[in-house]
Amino acid sequence: MTETSAPEPSTGPGAQTTEFDLSDPAFITDPAAGERWLSGPRPVCPGKFADGSPIWVATGYQDVRKVLSEPTLRSRPPGDSHRESMLSRGIPEDIVDMFDSTLLTMDGEDHMRVRRLVTRALSARRMQTLTPAINRVAHRLLDDLAAKPEPDLIADYAHPLAIIVICELLGVDEGYREQWREWSETLAAALRPNPEQFAPAVRGMARVTRELIEARQAEPRDDLISELVQIHEQDSERLTDDELVALAMVLVQAGHETVRNLIALGVFTLLQHPDQLKQLKDDPSIAARAVVELVRHTAPVKHTFRRFATEPVEIGGVTVQPGEAIQVVLAAANRDPEEFDRPEALDLTREHNPHLGFGRGAHYCLGASLALIEGEVALNALFERFPDLELAADPAEIAPRYLLSMQRLPVRLSPAPTTCPVTG
């Protein structure tokens, strides 16, 4: 790809091409592409979605905020379905309908009906009660970590912590968790899935979810699936069979992938900013604010799903016409100098931090409170246990690409020994 700034749009989102082209594999993997969007001009401009269809792209803070809050912008495209786009990206036809009935693709009353069912279960107050359990999981994983000379902090800590916590919250039996973790990794590639891996993962997760639902129908427990099953049994119109399965799958995927990325990116970023890391180690009480800043700075979720206009709407001087799509780049909005002082700097004690890392409006992330608590516990536990933790690889080799999660994070738990010259 060539390095060009985003062009000004003309008559429609397909009128010009831009670097923000999710249909171009090079954009996904090019480490410089994301940096140009994070630091470059922020007009609303045209781009392409993963299926090659034209979209508008919003990157400025105020534009992104308006898109996320605008009621005339909907999750569902004209025709009220994502089927064609999903099929074009290789999602098999027999599972498209299930994918098309999740919270992420619902609007209006249907969205609020399903969302209300889990809002109370995932409230900030209830999430706080989970802190001791999360802490126990973290320390158990750190015990195992200590036995490895150069562990991979993603495979051995961030990943299992995230999947264990969300599975315990939902009530997924321990025997399924490793398999669920593998399925979750496959689902994370939904932007450009491999049909041979993707379809079996979705079918497997759906099958186990249905088995889990049947088990909780027979024997309820103190978990989120049991709560949802009871609601479903009392009034099936409040939550259909497919919606219950899709909801459980979304909660596992979103609750796992975002937290995994937050912990991994957080540790990687802190190790690149030793002054900020020292502040956290010297005063663990700043961890809650530090995690919020890491969400802003590292962007565990880079962008949202598309929104489709139901009537003409003006965003950043551009009129998005009915049927046209617009996508927001959260990572860029959270680096907007019009909103944030020194946006490129990592400042764990930043006071003005109205970041959009978890979205905004009707589709604000349901698991935001849980993600922040997990991040806080994970970082404090890690650096308290291993204060001399350091990278065991060249940062440039393991740095994340713009839209690809970090794949590995090899670390040493104590500094590498230095070789002293031998004198005669």
Automatic annotation (TrEMBL):
<dbReference type="InterPro" id="IPR001128">
    <property type="entry name" value="Cyt_P450"/>
</dbReference>
<dbReference type="InterPro" id="IPR017972">
    <property type="entry name" value="Cyt_P450_CS"/>
</dbReference>
<dbReference type="Pfam" id="PF00067">
    <property type="entry name" value="p450"/>
</dbReference>
<comment type="similarity">
    <text>Belongs to the cytochrome P450 family.</text>
</comment>
<dbReference type="InterPro" id="IPR002397">
    <property type="entry name" value="Cyt_P450_B"/>
</dbReference>
<dbReference type="GO" id="GO:0020037">
    <property type="term" value="F:heme binding"/>
</dbReference>
<dbReference type="GO" id="GO:0016705">
    <property type="term" value="F:oxidoreductase activity, acting on paired donors, with incorporation or reduction of molecular oxygen"/>
</dbReference>
<keyword id="KW-0408">Iron</keyword>
<protein>
    <submittedName>
        <fullName>Cytochrome P450</fullName>
    </submittedName>
</protein>
<dbReference type="GO" id="GO:0005506">
    <property type="term" value="F:iron ion binding"/>
</dbReference>
<keyword id="KW-0560">Oxidoreductase</keyword>
<keyword id="KW-0349">Heme</keyword>
<feature type="region of interest" description="Disordered">
    <location>
        <begin position="1"/>
        <end position="35"/>
    </location>
</feature>
<feature type="compositionally biased region" description="Polar residues">
    <location>
        <begin position="1"/>
        <end position="20"/>
    </location>
</feature>
<keyword id="KW-0503">Monooxygenase</keyword>
<dbReference type="GO" id="GO:0004497">
    <property type="term" value="F:monooxygenase activity"/>
</dbReference>
<keyword id="KW-0479">Metal-binding</keyword>
<dbReference type="InterPro" id="IPR036396">
    <property type="entry name" value="Cyt_P450_sf"/>
</dbReference>
